[in-house]
Write a structure and sequence with these properties.
It is built from eight helices and seven strands; from the N terminus they run βαβαβαβαβαβαβαα. It has helices at about 15-30, 40-50, 65-70, 100-125, 145-165, 195-210, 220-230, 230-240, and strands at about 5-10, 30-35, 55, 80, 130-135, 170-175, 215.
Length: about 240
């Protein structure tokens, strides 16, 4: 589909990759950009100079808020599900599972809420596209962020499921698998980290090409290739990164 003149909703749009998406869609000539996040400070400042940008307060875990946003965005033909949370939360070693539940609730159920709410809108507007920003952690388990990795694996399965269910109505579904990205969420991680603009540029190109999967950066491409070549070796490589107790 064409990015220019599209009407797009980006979640998690106030910072990091989401903020980069807003800038990329503005530069690409999108007709309208709805920027949704819990915090909209940057979005509101940007909207003063960019009238095509409409900030929206949204917690994707809250079905009432999701429904309310859907009512205010009846014209969209492109949905970017970017909002997510993470933390260094393992599976067995974690003292409690409270944070794991928050991560699953946001990354899996929150994204699913968005897909369910906007599927009828996309259908009414000709089909359009859903883009789910996943992670290489969806493809191979990364134990140091075990709960996040499990949530993204679930989100990948969900992405495949909604692609199957929405094919009949003409809605395309793109899964994006970034490696480490240089945002405030990854300050603890040493390089290499891809700049957010690298992820957004590759994603906009993939939207134009109607792709179903995208490995947008060097680390993601390496992981994708290794997954085909020797998936068990890849699993052991990431398992070895688990810190000692």
């Amino acid at each position: 589909m064409k990015v220019s003149d599209s009407r797009v909703l980006v979640t998690g749009a106030n910072q990091g990759i989401g903020q980069a998406f807003v800038g990329a869609f503005l530069s690409a000539g999108a007709a309208r950009i709805y920027g949704a996040d819990l915090n909209t400070d940057w979005l509101e400042k940007k909207a003063v100079e960019e009238k095509r940008l409409l900030p929206l307060t949204l917690d994707i875990r809250d079905t009432d808020q999701v429904a309310n946003v859907a009512e205010h965005c009846p014209d969209i033909d492109l949905l970017i599900n970017n909002a997510a949370i993470t933390q260094h939360t393992s599976l067995i070693r974690a003292k409690k599972l409270d944070r794991a539940r928050d991560i699953i609730d946001t990354n899996y159920f929150g994204t699913l809420h968005m897909c369910r709410a906007f599927a009828p809108i996309l259908k009414a507007n000709g089909g359009g596209m859903i883009v789910n920003i996943l992670s290489i952690a969806a493809l191979v388990h990364i134990p140091r962020v075990g709960a996040y990795s499990a949530s993204k694996a679930a989100e990948l399965s969900m992405t495949q499921g909604i692609r199957a269910e929405l094919t009949e109505q003409g809605t395309r579904v793109l899964a994006v698998f970034p490696g480490p990205v240089d945002t405030s969420f990854s300050t603890h991680r040493p390089p290499p980290k891809a700049p957010p603009l690298e992820i957004t540029k590759a994603t906009l190109d993939a939207i134009e090409q109607d792709l179903e999967e995208l490995y947008p950066d060097a680390v993601a491409k390496e992981v994708g290739a290794e997954l085909i070549r020797d998936p068990k070796a890849l699993e052991r490589r990431f398992a070895a990164q688990l810190p000692e107790k």
